[in-house]
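G., before I forget:
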Amino acid sequence: MRSLSQEKTIKTTTDIDSLRSEIRDKSVRVIDVRREEDYKQNHIPTAVNLPLANLLSDDSPERVLKIFNSLGIDDETRVVVYDDTFGALASRVAWTLEYIGHSDVSLLETTYSRWKSLGLESETISPEIQSKQHSLRLKPEILATSDYLEQSKEKKDVLLIDNRERLNYLEQHIPGAISLPYRTLAKNDKILRPKEDMKRLLDNRGISGDSEIITYCGSVGTLSGLAYYALKSAGLPNVKLYVRSFKEWKNLKKPLEKQEDANYWDLSAE
Amino acid sequence: MTVSDLKQPHSDSVRPTINWARVEEAVDFAKTVKLYRQGKYDDDSFRRYRLQHGAYGTRMTSDYAMVRIKLPAGEIYPQQLEKIAQLSEQFSIGSAHFSTRENIQLHWVVLEDVSEIFRGLAEVGLTSREACGNSVRNVMCSPLSGVCPGEEFDATPYALATAKFFLRNPMAQSLPRKFKFNFTCCEKHGMVRMVDVGLIPQIKEIDGTAQKGFKIFLGGGLGNRSFVGHQLEEFTPEEDLIYTSIAVLRIFDRLGDRKNLARNRMRYLVNDMGWDAFQNLVFKERALVRATQSVVTQLDVDFTPSEIKRPIRVTDESGNPNPDGYARWLKTNTEKQKQPGYRSAFITLEAGDITANQLSALGEIVSDYSSEGKARVGFNQNIALRYVSEDDLPRLYSRLLEVGLAKSGSLTMTAPIGCSGTTSCNLALTNSHRLAKEIQRKFLELRLDEDDDLRDSTIKISGCPNSCGQHGIATIGFFGGGGRVGKEMYPNYQMLLGGRSDGETMLGLTCTRIPAKRVIPAILKIIELFKKYKKPNDTLKEWIHRIVNEKEDSEIKSILDLRKIMDQLAVPPTKEDDPDFYSDYGSDTSYHTKTGKGECAA
Ligand code: SF4
């Protein structure tokens, strides 16, 4: 229950103005998850760099903990993550932080390109970081594994959401999944739709708070990480990320479902 | 991966002048889908409702719909292109499809998301209302109206006014069947005799003053049975346009066949009654309408001309002034306008398909290069930028090249039409859509677009006997079916020759059946024969025209002579020798026919 009351106050996304004042107050740790070259060119002031690839090379809780410690994050640190990939990579990092037990993490509401195009401040220097000690209190309730998915098949109130593009979904998906392409989640220059908008979209689809919801995407849980936050932003309490996603499912030769008897790929102009 | 949904629209682009949308319809649609899923709506009434709002069913599933966005008179503005790009990425397959009737279609949309598309469309003034169902479908107008050297005046304002008059008009909500208006610029650019009501603008000297009006053709149409339309009278003055339209619609509403789904287009009524009787009835009804309609029943024709202003570009102007392939593109994709110094440039698509990225780029390109600041969708699954200053053409070409839209051949035989076929249509028997793409790729590779003899010929392909692919008016047309050798099936096409939709409109004559995987060799064979027997200055279209009318004096005198030669190509190989023959394009499994309940055509 600890997290419930806290989650109410921690917003999924942080708007630009709030972040700027938090930076001024030195009350936030900003993480830039772009590649190192991009980060070095310039980044949001005080941001530290954690390229997603670095995190993914070994995302065991122990290593992840070390990484976050070295970035100067302890249990109380307020964290904001951003990227230049419509929030998908940032989401995967934010989710990982949540998974090891961190509660105060949000996504920047927009991308770094947008930040730059607005003419907002940036810098090239990397900040000095003092290592900190974060505790390890895993939150298994936000993680789904392939075994967990198999067990959930029998349950009635579990919704499985596929966040890949529609054609990929039509061609193959995990049995019972519904398609909600990651593109659907953004609106104009924001990585996520406004709350009411998101709620309406999900409500039309019958995606509601009564169900347990599991999101997955193609391989490493980025697109579905964004969906994880999209669902949370709409106030849905019980969301899990199948972090190893479709790639693992396929490798394990688990059952698949497809849309039969139609040549939908030939409608694509790609 | 793109970021079109995070992009800001061009701030100075030309804005749409007409709002076709009503956002309430999105709300209502969402509600209705919910009720339907809860079983509170029966299948039939939901289906009618869905179609009336422009959402079709999809092949073999009730989970998905196709949303058909209407572009009245074919007009589309930059911010609308950008919005459709976004919607296609969010709710469809990341590509959109230009149809033959100036609609843009989004396929494989989750039924529950359709209302979200309506909302998005409403933001830019577009609707899909009455794009399907038994209503007045999108009112078309030639993409060259207003710029065509051969036209007497611009029909665009009349097309828009007609669309405005009938959209959501109670008299057009439950007709016996769909009803189509086509306006054009001139005889050559055609398409007026193959539609319920076709109109060509005409100016007539009456008592010393020039009077605007139309040549109106009634009762034509393509379908399982096709008919050529009849001209109502020599000249219909512009003020009679609305009365004539209402009169015809009323007659159809009253007398059209509501029982027999296969025979309920207006052309059957005209055919059954006989033209003279029908014509008389229209005159009588029109007199009645004229006498009884109040003065407020008028077409709201907006004559404000579009502002023609050469755009100021912020983009890079450097680069090669004569890029590779430019001459070929200029020749096969552009038309001189009647306004000196300007051309209309057509974009070649593959069977009408375009990616979200390309659509979005096109929005910017239109702003940057069209002096009227908007684009016009054409009759052939394509789109035109008009009022491009001739000096800007090389740069426009370079820009199109960057986004993969600079393929040549748009105005030639190498841009075939293919209906959606088995990619999404419930009635399809073959993958006509992919076949059109295959033909295009092959023919561009052979540079057939540069051959002037072939330029005015057309290839059109439907995936079943219904005529969404317009095979009946193609120089070389095809419609799909299944062929059989013993127990094995293979995809097959009926080939028709000599169809045309211009001043000498006629329907193509059946030649023979050609297996899908032999269609390309068959067309090449026809071209080879043509080259052998052609007269100087002959075009393929004229040569075929003479053959189907038995006026050719060379060795090939009739369609039967041609058939004998073509039949050699149609002999099926054994499955061991050529397994590929037994599967359709886009599929690696053995071909079989499978269809569901149709909504596309009768
Ligand atoms: S009904 Fe036939 S002609 Fe029309 S789209 Fe479907 S396959 Fe093509």
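DSSP finds 15 helices and 21 strands in chain B. The pocket of iron/sulfur cluster is lined by residues B 419-421, 425, 427-428, 432, 462-464, 466, 468-469, 598, 600-601 (CB under 6 Å).

More on Monday.
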